[in-house]
Amino acid sequence: MTIHCEKCQQPLQLSDGEFICSGCGARYLAEACCPDCHQPLERLSACGAVNYFCHHGHGLISKKRVDFQPQKAQGGSGTA
Ligand SMILES: [Zn+2]
Ligand SMILES: [Zn+2]
């Protein structure tokens, strides 16, 4: 799956926890999501290793399976 920049529609490259646009250089914070339910994962770090945990019944997700999604810019509209 390729993710594209909201601004210039160029493909984004995942680099060290964030997406960087190859076109305009925009950066998007990468959010770890569950590959099964697409909900945000809790990031657990222990002894230098990072694990991801799904609170929706999928348990620990190995880093290879984590589905990284670009986080949208923080909007003002709160969701309940
Ligand atoms: Zn761009
Ligand atoms: Zn899940």
Q: How is this structure best described in words?
A:
With 80 residues, the chain is mainly beta. The chain has 2 domains: 1-30, no CATH class; 32-68, YfgJ-like (Rubredoxin-like), CATH 2.10.290. It has strands spanning 12-15, 18-21, 27-33, 42-46, 49-54, 59-61, 67-70. It has a 4-stranded antiparallel β-sheet, with no helix packed on it. Strand 4 (42-46) and strand 5 form a beta hairpin. The chain is elongated and about 35 Å long. The N and C termini lie far apart (30 Å). The model has no long low-confidence stretch (mean pLDDT 88). The structure holds zinc ion (2 copies). Residues 34, 36-37, 39, 54, 56, 58 line the site of one zinc ion.
Order of helices and strands: EEEEEEE
Kindly, what is the distance between the CA atoms of the first and last residues, rounded to a whole number of angstroms?
A: 30 Å
Q: What do the pLDDT scores average to?
A: 88
Q: Please provide the count of β strands.
A: 7
**Strand portion, in percent?**
35-45%
- Computed over alpha carbons, the radius of gyration is 14 Å
Q: In the CATH classification, which architecture of the largest domain applies?
A: Ribbon
Report helical residue fraction. under 10%
In the CATH hierarchy, the third-tier topology of the largest domain is known as Rubredoxin-like
Q: How many separate domains?
A: 2
Shape: elongated
Q: Given the structure, what is the number of helices?
A: 0
Strand line-up of the largest beta sheet: 1-2-3-7
The CATH superfamily label of the largest domain reads: YfgJ-like
